[in-house]
Design a protein that fits this description.
The chain is mainly β. Helices cover 3% and strands 44% of the residues. Strands 20, 21, 24, 25, 26, 27, 29, 30 and 33 form a 9-stranded antiparallel β-sheet that branches. Strands 1, 5, 6, 8, 13, 14, 15 and 17 form an 8-stranded antiparallel β-sheet that branches. Strands 7-16-9-10-11-12 form a 6-stranded antiparallel β-sheet, with no helix packed on it. The two termini are 26 Å apart.
Length: 644
């Protein structure tokens, strides 16, 4: 487990910092429009009033009255979506010189993360065009209305016959898509339609002007008079579906750049694209060829939100093929949710996919001798781990599957450390759930290393011995306390509960750490403790519910009268929540500074012993690095944070 400490000198306030803008996949040239449902939204209730560009805070889509779509949380891999109900609901964006595609441009690229609730309707997802009904001047991400070649097709539609000529790529109802319309400045093969289903197998390439039909000209003579999402210029073609993200470049996007943008969107939304997944720097974080056996339902934890990255921060994830927007598992699909990584730094990734094995239980010969006779499911998953995301929580949903286990003691996450998928050889380690209910097992403190393969035991067998305590210690590290302990004979251990006390008598639980059979040494970091004496003990639980206590250890912390940090750093919302942990009451001066040394705001805050949360308004702040300077009497503390 990585333990990180951030110290910032006040000298930093005087240093100018150049911060490159975040862009999709790190692809910045000619990016003219980028909106995403998890940023830049302003609502009245659930109705969306404005949707501001991520790449340009001066530009927004707007809507009013009953025409507004809704912003709904946790629709796709824990991300919100903008929902259009099929009526007259739309949003209008900047036009004229501020429109994303220049007047009459002959190459551009439009990428959208979207779904439709119908495959028999003419729908406009996004368009830029004129106000005329039939004018050869449009770029429009559209679906067709059921006539040839429909139903259930989408593409780039001009407002002149034959309307459907460039709408030829199929889609399915209520299935999320990553789709790209890519217009090339060439005579033939000039329109590419690419999505998550064909990017790995061969993209759809069209000639937009065969036999003299006027579509080729229509896709190029782009007007800047109307710029709209959710409907056509006159309110026709309303979208009955959702949009999570729209990206427009005023040039074509191909090759490695396309791969980086699709990778960013796939990792964010839990959508499998079948190809390598790469970071904004071009590093491969999921190798589709090397992991070809396991290249199904790929998803994971990711962070790529450095100054020139993608703004990607995925701390909770599942595949949309097995789960839902809020992580609820689809029935009988064996949905896995990963969450709460302890050390997810920039350019850290953990991606996984499965071998499409059956989700059926059997007494399998493919288990170690120590657990011979155990039942397990046939499906196996493989991990590609880049950097170090730390430990994390995992749930597995067995709802709808026939399994024998009825309590946490009967389940195991079983990990093959050599990654060959043979659980009878090499080193195997196990994690035991701390709870089981509603068909879901819950694990914490899980570590999965690069190229490891895992599966699940659903009815454990074998003789397991009681735990032997070897040592237990507590040590101060800055404002934290690190606990270290060592055990032996821990095969029957389920988990360890960390208990804390300020008087050595009255203890409360502060954390739970899962036991791993292959590991005999453990550590836990109790963060942000105040000055004074602190006592700790560990309560170890066996699978059968029996439990024992460790000895009590103590440490005396000598810290300043207060400490401060920013919650949920980096922040995505309109305010930065500053936490002040104080040993005594007082008054704090809270200053917001830009990274180049400009003071942006100041407020006073009365603080009380314990924790005080102070919201700092960030609505007018652009994405980038900022500092909070906290002054209490003669004491000063400074903390850096990032706004996405």
């Amino acid at each position: 487990m990585k333990i990180k400490f951030y110290v910032l000198s006040l000298v930093s306030l005087t240093l100018a910092t150049t911060i490159a803008a975040q862009t999709p996949g790190g692809v910045s040239a000619n990016l003219t429009l980028w909106v995403k449902s998890d940023a830049g939204t302003s609502t009245t209730g659930s109705l969306l009033d404005t949707w501001t560009y991520v790449n340009d805070g001066t530009k927004s889509f707007t809507s009013a009255g009953t025409d507004r779509p809704s912003l709904v949380s946790s629709v796709i891999n824990f991300n919100p979506s903008v929902q259009f109900g099929g009526g007259v609901r739309f949003m209008d964006g900047p036009i004229g010189v501020d429109a994303p595609i220049a007047l009459g441009d002959d190459s551009y690229s439009v990428l959208v993360v979207w779904q439709s609730n119908t495959n028999s309707a003419f729908q406009r997802v996004w368009s830029q065009r004129s106000t005329l009904g039939f004018s050869n001047d449009a770029c429009a991400f559209s679906t067709w209305d059921g006539s040839a070649p429909g139903p259930g097709v989408y593409g780039d539609e001009t407002a002149t016959a034959p309307f459907s000529h460039t709408i030829q790529r199929s889609y399915s109802v209520s299935i999320w898509n990553i789709s790209q319309l890519n217009l090339l400045n060439q005579a033939t093969g000039d329109l590419e339609i690419i999505d998550d289903r064909n990017i790995s197998s061969g993209i759809t390439t069209l000639n937009t002007d065969p036999g003299g039909t006027p579509n080729g000209a229509g896709l190029r003579a782009i007007s800047t008079a109307v710029h709209r999402i959710g409907a056509s210029h006159d309110g026709s073609g309303p979208l009955n579906g959702d949009i999570a993200e729209i990206i427009v470049y005023d040039r074509s996007i191909n090759g490695a750049e396309r791969g980086r943008i699709f990778s960013y969107l796939a990792m964010k939304y839990g959508i499998t694209i079948g190809t390598d997944l790469v970071s904004s720097a071009g590093a491969t974080v999921w190798n589709a060829a090397a992991n070809s056996t396991y290249n199904n339902s790929v998803f994971g934890l990711s962070r790529d939100n450095g100054a020139s990255g993608s703004g990607l921060l995925v701390t909770q994830s599942n595949s949309i093929e097995t789960g839902s927007g809020d992580g609820t598992g689809q029935n009988a699909q064996g949905n896995i949710v990963l969450s709460n990584p302890t050390s997810l730094d920039d350019l850290d990734f953990l991606q996984m996919g499965h071998d499409n094995g059956a989700l059926t239980e059997s007494i399998s010969p493919d288990v170690p001798v120590a657990v011979a006779g155990s039942r397990r499911i046939a499906r196996e998953w493989k991990v590609q781990h880049t950097g170090n995301v730390g430990t994390f929580d995992m749930t597995m949903n067995f709802s709808g599957l026939t399994i024998s286990g009825t309590g946490p003691i009967q389940f195991r996450l079983m990990v093959d450390e050599d990654g060959d998928g043979d659980f009878t050889t090499g080193t195997i380690r196990y994690y035991t759930p701390f709870s089981f209910g509603g068909g879901i097992i819950n694990l914490t403190g899980v570590t999965l290393n690069n190229n490891e393969v895992f599966t699940f035991i659903t009815q454990a067998a074998g003789v397991l011995l009681p735990v032997t305590w070897k040592n237990f210690s507590a040590k101060q590290i800055n404002n934290d306390v690190r606990l270290d302990w060592k055990v032996e004979n821990n095969a029957n251990a389920s988990h360890y509960e960390i208990e804390h006390s300020s008087d050595g008598t009255n203890f409360t639980r502060v954390a739970t750490v899962s036991n791993t059979i292959a590991d005999v040494t453990y550590e836990f970091l109790h963060r942000g403790v105040l000055s004074g004496a602190h006592f700790y003990r560990i309560r170890q639980f066996d699978f059968d519910g029996k439990n024992t206590y460790s000895k009590i250890v103590s440490v005396t912390i000598k810290t300043p009268d207060f400490i401060t940090y920013v919650l949920n750093n980096p922040i995505l919302n309109s305010s930065a929540d500053v936490v002040i942990k104080a040993a005594k009451p007082g008054t704090a001066l809270v200053e917001l500074w830009s990274a180049n040394g400009a003071k942006l705001s100041t407020k006073q805050q009365v603080i009380t012993p314990g924790s005080t949360i102070v919201p700092v308004d960030m609505r007018a702040a652009q994405p980038g690095n900022y500092l909070i300077r906290l002054i209490v009497g003669d004491l000063v503390q400074t903390v850096r944070f990032v706004k996405l």
